[in-house]
Design a protein that fits this description.
heterodimer, A: alpha/beta, Rossmann fold, about 40% helix, B: alpha/beta, two-stranded antiparallel sheet, 10 helices, globular, binds thiamine diphosphate, binds iron/sulfur cluster
Chain lengths: ~375, ~260
């Protein structure tokens, strides 16, 4: 028996901070915003600069924090930021530059309801912004959607692994509910931060000062030669296609015999799990597919169920965003509808079952 | 006795040569532009201080966006105005390295005002080089935050009108008031004497980083002869007559 397990009760936001220190993050740069301020507050309380040497800095804005992330990522360091919807909107410029410069980093969005200043209550209305690029140009973020405090902790490391594997920013798309709720979480043991020598070996592109043996490293997203820039854009698309081939992650419940399917991620997936149980108790054969990666989207996994699934309800805390990707996936073969409460209102399992019966089964 | 060219080209006769850190890439700047002179000086300073392996530069968006093509060190290219944020993180994560940013007036004193002020206010241990040519060179000569009253630009073709456009901004005096800045100076590069003084300031800006005592900030009052629609000589004269009274040269802070 492993008696060294470190199991705690904590908020999702606190789990992000704990996991960041433990997986050897070099720098966190952030700006306060509800409902995610506990991430930086926890880091500041834990003082990782005294233990692992991690840098934690409060920036003057989200624009500054994402550009600090760019500077750190360009040095091959493991750097991250977190924010909530309005702050993430401000980061879109930085994110497209990071994608264009092929820099790895992790960004956490603890989503709140919009548009505008909106509300501090949970929402899932930043789906389009997250999975379709968000800033200007043809690019994608790797998007992970945690549905528990445990996954908030685990996905920090996973997001860094994927970000460095593909030299691309990774986004943890959470929401105010997962960020604020407390759950049991098992924390991983501390891992050493990479030394500068290790970074030079692993990431030869990093700007760490130019030794005589190599050409100078340049981190940039400018390319004024149209043919060269077209080739670069194609290269990015190859990368995204490879992610689509190799990195899709999702979880399926009762899908083997399902006649109807709920597709939901994050906190909505938690609610849909209960909704599925309620529907099954009524004799409706319902399954739940929970995308863990929103980009790449579990296209093949959903298509594989279309032999027996007669209708799909996409359940999101939005006016209907992921439902568009489900429809693209299904290509009109079965009925796909959306259900979701917005503005910070959270749907109940009963509402989900009622919507399934009304929009899919009866409709 | 006949003297051949071979007798003259000897190491002991050498008075000046191109810095070995300057690449063979032809510079894209307009002939007469101050950027080229300052780029060359930075290469010389890094070479003379022996800091090629230790330096990371950050380029802006503006005419000097491609500065990384000319000096043989590691570089990062920032989004418009964000160079001080990059510089902050690079220095904090690699505190033993020498870090400098290089920005125009639009980049540093308009879109990047917050990043500039806050990097200086935190006292980031970096050197910030500020090329103030009073105009947006790269985008074709629009009004800059530093455009002088009455000075014409493509977005104030009849001259800057403070009532409509606001007043020219003296960013260097502003950052000098911040406790985080250690060395704040305003220099130029239009004469041999000015170039020598600017080089001294740049050396100081790099050397200051050996001690973690705050930000070094060097403004270079510059010309953009293309944007100003003047010959290089006229531009220098115009700068001396019009820019220097509003942007006086000299050290503002040195502690
Ligand atoms: C977000 C954004 N806005 C606007 C621009 C267009 N732009 C490029 S350079 C520039 C200003 C350049 O002027 P300055 O910083 O003074 O440098 P100079 O070219 O004079 O050296 C502008 C507005 C841009 N690249 N990005
Ligand atoms: S436009 Fe002005 S600042 Fe730009 S290279 Fe030409 S002279 Fe220099």
């Amino acid at each position: 028996m492993d008696n060294k397990k470190d199991i705690r009760l904590m908020k999702g936001n606190e789990a992000i901070a704990e996991a960041a220190i433990r997986c050897g993050v070099d720098g966190y740069f952030g700006y306060p915003i509800t409902p995610q301020s506990e991430v930086m507050e926890t880091l500041m309380l834990l003082k990782p600069w005294e233990t692992t040497g991690m840098v934690v800095l409060q920036a003057e804005s989200e624009i500054a924090s994402i550009n600090m992330v760019y500077g750190g990522a360009g040095c091959g360091k493991k750097v991250m930021t977190s924010s909530s919807s309005p702050g993430i909107s401000l980061m879109q410029e930085g994110l497209t530059y990071l994608a264009g410069a092929e820099l790895p980093c992790v960004v956490v969005n603890v989503v709140r309801g919009g548009p505008g200043l909106g509300t501090i209550q949970p929402a899932q209305s930043d789906y389009f912004q997250s999975v379709k690029g968000g800033g200007h140009g043809d690019y994608k973020l790797i998007v992970l959607a945690p549905a528990s405090v445990q996954e908030m902790a685990d996905f920090v490391e996973l997001a860094f692994d994927l970000a460095f594997k593909y030299r691309n920013p990774a986004l943890i798309l959470s929401d105010g509910m997962i960020g604020q709720m407390m759950e049991k979480v098992e924390l991983k043991p501390y891992r050493k931060r990479w030394t500068n020598e290790e970074i030079k070996q692993m990431h030869p592109w990093a700007t760490m000062g130019k030794p005589a043996e190599r050409e100078r490293n340049i981190i940039t997203s400018v390319e004024l030669d149209p043919n060269a820039f077209e080739r670069f854009n194609h290269k990015l698309q190859d990368k995204y296609r490879k992610m689509q081939e190799e990195e899709v992650r999702c979880e399926q419940f009762n899908c083997e015999d399902a006649e109807y399917l709920l597709v939901a991620y994050g906190s909505s997936a938690r609610i849909c799990q209960k909704a599925m149980e309620l529907a099954r108790a009524k004799g409706i054969k319902v399954g739940l597919l929970r995308p863990i990666t929103l980009f790449p989207f579990p296209t093949r996994e959903i298509q594989a169920l279309l032999g027996h699934v007669k209708g799909i309800l996409s359940v999101e805390l939005s006016e209907g965003q992921m439902v568009e990707d489900v429809r693209l996936t299904v290509e009109g073969k079965v009925k796909v509808e959306h259900f979701g409460r917005v503005g910070g209102v959270v749907h109940s399992p009963e509402e989900v079952v009622e919507a399934l019966e009304r929009k899919i089964i009866g409709g | 006795m006949e003297v051949s060219i071979k007798d003259i080209i000897k190491p002991e006769n050498l008075v000046y040569q191109k810095s070995s850190l300057l690449t063979e890439k032809p510079m894209h700047y307009c002939p007469g532009c101050t950027h080229g002179v300052v780029n060359r000086l930075i290469a010389e300073v890094i070479e003379e201080l022996g800091l090629q392996q230790e330096t990371i530069g950050v380029t802006p968006v503006g005419c000097s966006v491609l500065l990384y093509n000319y000096i043989d060190i590691d570089w990062q290219e920032a989004a418009h105005g964000r160079a001080p944020a990059l510089g902050t993180a690079i220095k904090r994560l690699l505190p033993e390295k020498y870090v400098f940013t290089y920005q125009g007036d639009g980049d540093l004193a308009a879109i990047g005002t917050a990043e500039t002020i806050h990097a200086c206010n935190r006292g980031e241990n970096i050197l910030m080089v500020f090329i103030n040519n009073g105009i947006y060179g790269m985008t074709g000569g629009q009004m800059a935050p530093t455009t002088l009253e009455g000075m014409a630009a493509s977005t104030c073709p009849f001259g800057r009108d403070p009532e409509r456009d606001g007043n020219p901004l003296s960013m260097t005096e502003i950052v000098a008031t911040l406790p985080g800045t250690r060395y704040v100076t305003r220099q130029a590069a239009h004469t041999a004497g000015a170039v020598r003084k600017l080089k001294k300031a740049l050396i100081k800006g790099f050397n200051n980083q050996k001690e973690n005592k705050g930000t070094s900030f060097i403004e270079v009052v510059s010309t953009c002869n293309s944007g100003w629609k003047m010959t290089p000589v006229q531009a220098n004269e115009w700068m001396v007559e019009n820019m220097f009274p509003f942007y006086p040269l000299g050290d503002i802070k040195d502690k």
